[in-house]
Every structure is written in structure tokens, then in C-alpha cells.
Amino acid sequence: MTTTNQTGTDTLEAYRRDGYAIFRDVLDADLIAEASDHVSWLEGRHPGVRPEQLGHMFLRDDPFWLRLVGDDRLVDIAQLFVGPDLALFASHYISKPPRSGQPVLWHQDSAFWPLEPMEVVTLWLAIDHSTPENGCVRLVPGSHTMQTQAMREVTEVASVLGQEIAVEVDEADAVDMVLRPGDVEVHHPRIVHGSNANTSPHRRCGLTIRYIPTSTRITGDEQPYISAFLLRGDPGVNTYQPWPVYEEGKHFPFRGAR
């Protein structure tokens, strides 16, 4: 298991073996505080949306969100896994409110994404402290080596995805991703993962960021949740969204917005 910062070959070898890695203290406290305020701002603008569902359709024209996912410290980590020509495929705040935050049932991300080939890496940025008590991410190390499995609908419990993987998962094999604000957990698109409900008195918020090499094609042509933006290098095979321009009164205000 990888639980501390490593670089280069060591990190990639651990990622290939376990399907995940953890990088500590990636972003500074001031930027994380802005991200936390951004989540509260989004919740105020979209009161009918559960805070676990503050995803792509609410973010694609948001300058602060792009400032955050385009931060060189995050993109440098993504580059270790997908190479120097990279783009943002999609991103999503999953903010579990105190005592009522929904679980994310066991799944593989690759079951949902229209990507060819399935070359993509997820960076999970901790906005809050993430612990077993408030529903941190749980991963099954090594499960990324199996193929993408079918999903099945689940209606007996309210959950973020409304689905779960259609094979048995031994929860005894799972590892808790305990993170501090500013830490980043990186995982493979086929690793089996999920999280429990938040029954604690503390919010648990994280931002999922999906980076792709620009050689990976986004094949879904009717995917309104996808927010593809070129971040670094050659544009490759996709068409990308134009970066939004900050407008006072319309967008979340942040340092350097103008």
C-alpha cells in the first residue's frame, strides 16, 4: 500500500501493484479554504441539488473550478500517470453533509465512462478531513487487475450512484483512505472502491478530478456532464471547451479572479 509521498518509478510501481497512491500536503491551506467556500457557494446557488451531486453540469463554466483542477501541483501528479499531453475529462464535488451524507456503493469508474482506450487517472482531492467516521473513500487494493464488471441498480438504499458492482466484494479487503485537507489520493479506473454514509457531525467533502492523455478519445457524443478542457501539451484527438472568463457577480469570487 502507498500511504506517503513517493516520486517517479517508486510511485508508478506502487500504483501498478495496488491501483492507488497517496500524496500528502499537495495544496496549501488558503486554496483549500477557497475550495470549501466554493462548495458552500454552489450549494447556495443550487439549493435543490444534493451536495453529493455538485458535478460537471454545474462547473463547466466556472473559472474557479478550472483554476483549481488546472493547478500545476495537481497536473504535475496527473502527468506522472498519463504523460505530458493531458486534458481534464470530468470532475465532481462529492460533499457529504453531516449525519445525512449518502454512501457511494462499490463500483469501478470504468463502468461509466465513454473513453477509448480506458486510459484515465482520478485524483481525489480532500477538501475536508476524510475519515472512516465521516465516510472516507475505501479501496480494494489490487482489484484494478480485473476487467470492468457489470453494474446493477440498487433501490433499497439511497446512494450517490444508485448502482453497485454486480460481483461480491469482500469488505475485509478494503483499505480506508484517511486524508487531511490538501491531500490527494490517486486511483486506477478499474479499482473497486466506494464509501460509507456520513453519520458523523462533520462534513466530508472531496473533489474528484479525471485526467486523460490527449490520445484517449471521448466517444460519447451526448454526454452533457462531460467538461473536457485541454490543460497541457498537444490537443490530440478531442475537441475541448473554451475556458470561461470571470464575471463579477456571476461567478464565485477568488484570489486572482480578475
Task: Write a structural description.
The protein has five helices and 14 strands. The chain has 258 residues and is an alpha+beta fold. It has a single domain (8-232), classed as Jelly Rolls. The chain has a six-stranded antiparallel β-sheet with strand order 1-10-5-12-2-14. The protein is globular. The model is unreliable at 1-6 (pLDDT under 50).
What topology does this entry show?
Elements: H1 8-18, E1 20-23, H2 29-45, H3 56-59, H4 63-69, H5 72-82, E2 86-96, E3 104-107, E4 115-116, E5 121-126, E6 137-139, E7 151-153, E8 163-165, E9 175-176, E10 184-187, E11 193-195, E12 204-213, E13 217-218, E14 229-232
Antiparallel strand pairs: 1-10, 2-12, 2-14, 3-11, 4-13, 5-10, 5-12, 6-9, 6-11, 7-8
Mean pLDDT, nearest integer?
94
Give the overall silhouette: globular
Stretches where pLDDT is under 50 for at least 5 consecutive residues are: 1-6
In what range is the share of β-strand residues? Answer: 15-25%
So what's the CATH class?
Answer: Mainly Beta
- Rg for CA atoms: 17 Å
Q: Which structural class fits the helix and strand makeup? A: alpha+beta
Biggest pleated sheet: 6 strands, antiparallel
In short:
With 258 residues, this protein is α+β, with helices and mostly antiparallel strands. 19% of the residues lie in helices and 24% in strands.
